[in-house]
Design a protein that fits this description.
Blueprint (H helix, E strand, L loop, with lengths): L9 E5 L8 E5 L7 E5 L5 H16 L5 H4 L11 H11 L5 H18 L12 H8 L6 H20 L7 H10 L4 H8 L8 H14 L3 H13 L3 H6 L5 E4 L10 E6 L2 E2 L6 E2 L7 E5 L1 H12 L21 H15 L9 H12 L4 H8 L8 H10 L4 H12 L5 H7 L3 H7 L5 H7 L5 H7 L16 H8 L1
Antiparallel strand pairs: 1-2, 2-3, 4-5, 5-8, 6-7
Helix pairs in contact: 1-3, 3-4, 4-5, 6-7, 9-13, 10-12, 10-14, 14-16, 19-20
Length: about 475
C-alpha cells in the first residue's frame, strides 16, 4: 500500500519487470490523473530512496510538482555525507559481515573527522579532507591504505549512481603515489605478506608432517596454494560445491575439476557464509587441488552435500581463528617470520601463476578481485624472484601444481622473462600475444588439454615424497 506523509501526496517506489531503473509513483485523489510516475536515475533501492527524499523535499519547497513538471525532475542535488554512507551500506549489504563492519567503522571515523555536524554534502568532500583523515599520525601505513581503499569504494559507487561527478579518493590516491619509485611505493604500502617459494613450502609441510596431529592443516595449505582461496572460503567450502571428474582419454592430467565459491545458508541449522565481495566465482582445479579434493570426497562417511570438504578434527566446519593459530604455531617452529600468515597461501598462488606467465586478467578472475590495481604487489614481487635462477624456480612450481606433467611438455610451457613481464602488464597489450609461450600455461594447469608431447618426467615432483607420505 502507498505510504503517506503529512502535507504530501501518497507515494511508493516501483521497479517494473525488465527495467533497470526505479520509478517513483505519486497518488492524490484530487489531481488528474490520480497517479503520476516519475523515472528516478537510480539502479538500486538505496539510490532510489535517496532520490525519493530529494523529490519530496523539492515538493515541500514548491520547487517540484509531479503533475505539472511531468517527466522532468528538479535539478539533481547530491546527498548529505551520512546519507551516502547509509545508501552505500544498504546497496552492499550482501558483503561479508567483517567487510561491512570495517567499512561502517571507516565511514564513522571519516564523518567524525570531516563532518561532525552532518551538514556537508558528498560533492563538498575534497582531496584535502581525505588527506586530513588518511594522514593522521595514529594510523599505521597499512591502516591508511585500507581506509583509502574503503573510501574509494564509496566514491566509486557514488559516481556509478551519479550521486557525484568525481571519485576524489582515486584522484588523491594517484597524487599520493605520484613521483615515487617502486621501492618507495612498497615502503608506503607497507611490507606485504610474503609468498612462499617451493623450498619454503617444503620446509613448512615437513614441520607439520613431523608433528603428525594436524594433517588437515597440511591439506588446507596445499589446497589454498593451488586455488588461491581465502581463509574463510576454504573453511566454508562444501562438498556440493566441489566437482571432480576423470578427463577424456589423451589429456595430460589424470583428474580435473572445479569449485564454486559462493555465499550460502544451511536451511537446517541456519548457519551461513558470505564471500568477502558478496559475489560468486568458479575456480578450476589444477591437478594438485583436484587430487586433494578427490581424496577428501572419497573419505567422507556421508553423502551430505552441506558437509565441509575439510572437516575439523572434532567434526564440523573448521574455525578460521583456529586455522590461523595452528598455522602460526607451525610457522614459528619452521623458522618463518610473522609476515608469513595463512593468507600468504593466497599470495603464493598469485605469485606462482605470474612467475609461470599466466595472464594477469585470468589471475584476477581466479582470485575474485574487482580491479587490476590489487595485483600490482604480486607483479612487483615477481621482479625480485626473477633475479635469481628463474628457470629452476619455474620448473619446481610447475611440477608442484602438476605432479604428473610429462617432462617434454615443461620446456614448451615455461615462459621467458619477457612473457612474464607482459602477462603482468609491464608491456603493451599488443605485444602479449607475441611474447606468450608455445603452450599457454593456463591450459596445462586447469584444463588438462592434450598436446603432442610424451615421455616420463625429466625430474620428480618437488613434493613427491611428501604427497606420497601424506596419502599413505
Amino acid at each position: 500500500m502507498p505510504k503517506k506523509r503529512y502535507g504530501l501526496p501518497k507515494y511508493l517506489l516501483n521497479k517494473p519487470p525488465g527495467s533497470e531503473l526505479w520509478y517513483q509513483i505519486f497518488y492524490k485523489k484530487d489531481r488528474q490523473p490520480k497517479t503520476k510516475q516519475i523515472r528516478l536515475d537510480a539502479h538500486d533501492l538505496a539510490g532510489a530512496k535517496i532520490e525519493r527524499e530529494r523529490l519530496l523535499r523539492a515538493f515541500e519547497l514548491g520547487l517540484f510538482d509531479p503533475w505539472e513538471d511531468k517527466e522532468d525532475a528538479p535539478e539533481r542535488r547530491d546527498p548529505l555525507l551520512h546519507e551516502a554512507f547509509d545508501g552505500y551500506l544498504h546497496a552492499h549489504r550482501g558483503l561479508a559481515d567483517g567487510t561491512l563492519a570495517s567499512r561502517r567503522s571507516c565511514f564513522r571515523l571519516f564523518a567524525a573527522r570531516v563532518d561532525p555536524h552532518h551538514r556537508r554534502r558528498l560533492s563538498q568532500i575534497k582531496e584535502s579532507d581525505l588527506e586530513r583523515f588518511i594522514e593522521q599520525p595514529s594510523f599505521a601505513e597499512s591502516s591508511r591504505n585500507k581506509r583509502l581503499t574503503e573510501l574509494g569504494a564509496l566514491f566509486r559507487w557514488a559516481v556509478e549512481e551519479k550521486l557525484c561527478e568525481e571519485n576524489v579518493a582515486y584522484a588523491y590516491k594517484h597524487r599520493r603515489g605520484r613521483g615515487l619509485s617502486i621501492h618507495a611505493r612498497r615502503a608506503r604500502r607497507g611490507t606485504p605478506r610474503a609468498p612462499m617459494m617451493p623450498d619454503d613450502l617444503r620446509r613448512l609441510l615437513s614441520q607439520i608432517q613431523a608433528h603428525g596431529g594436524h594433517l588437515h592443516l597440511y591439506d588446507m595449505i596445499l589446497f589454498c596454494i593451488a586455488t588461491g582461496l581465502r581463509r574463510g572460503e576454504v573453511c566454508a567450502l562444501r562438498r556440493m560445491d566441489v566437482h571432480v571428474e576423470e578427463p577424456p582419454p589423451g589429456h595430460l592430467n589424470s583428474v580435473t575439476g572445479r569449485i564454486r565459491v559462493r555465499s550460502w545458508r544451511d536451511p537446517r541449522t541456519g548457519e551461513e557464509f558470505r564471500t568477502k565481495t558478496g559475489k560468486d566465482r568458479t575456480v578450476p582445479l589444477c591437478p594438485l587441488a583436484a587430487n586433494l579434493a578427490q581424496r577428501h570426497l572419497a573419505s567422507a562417511t556421508t553423502e551430505d552435500g552441506y558437509r565441509p570438504l575439510f572437516v575439523a578434527p572434532m567434526g564440523g566446519r573448521m574455525n578460521t581463528s583456529e586455522l590461523s593459530r595452528l598455522f602460526a604455531r607451525h610457522r614459528d617452529d619452521a623458522g618463518f617470520t610473522d609476515r608469513t600468515t595463512f593468507h600468504s597461501c593466497r599470495h603464493t598462488f598469485a605469485t606462482w601463476l605470474l612467475l609461470l606467465g599466466c595472464n594477469i586478467f585470468s589471475i584476477k578472475r581466479l582470485l575474485g578481485h574487482s580491479a587490476l590495481d590489487e595485483l600490482v604487489t604480486y607483479a612487483e614481487m615477481c621482479e625480485d624472484f626473477l633475479m635469481g635462477d628463474a628457470r629452476s624456480l619455474q620448473r619446481q612450481i610447475l611440477f608442484t601444481l602438476c605432479p604428473e606433467l610429462p617432462g617434454p611438455v615443461v620446456e614448451r610451457v615455461l615462459p621467458h622473462r619477457s612473457a612474464i613481464y607482459a602477462s603482468a602488464g609491464n608491456e603493451s597489450l599488443s605485444q602479449i600475444q607475441t611474447l606468450r609461450t608455445i603452450i599457454p600455461v593456463e591450459d596445462v594447469l586447469f584444463s588438462g588439454a592434450a598436446y603432442a608431447a610424451t615421455g616420463a618426467h625429466s625430474e620428480p615432483s618437488v613434493f613427491g615424497d611428501l604427497l606420497e607420505a601424506r596419502s599413505a
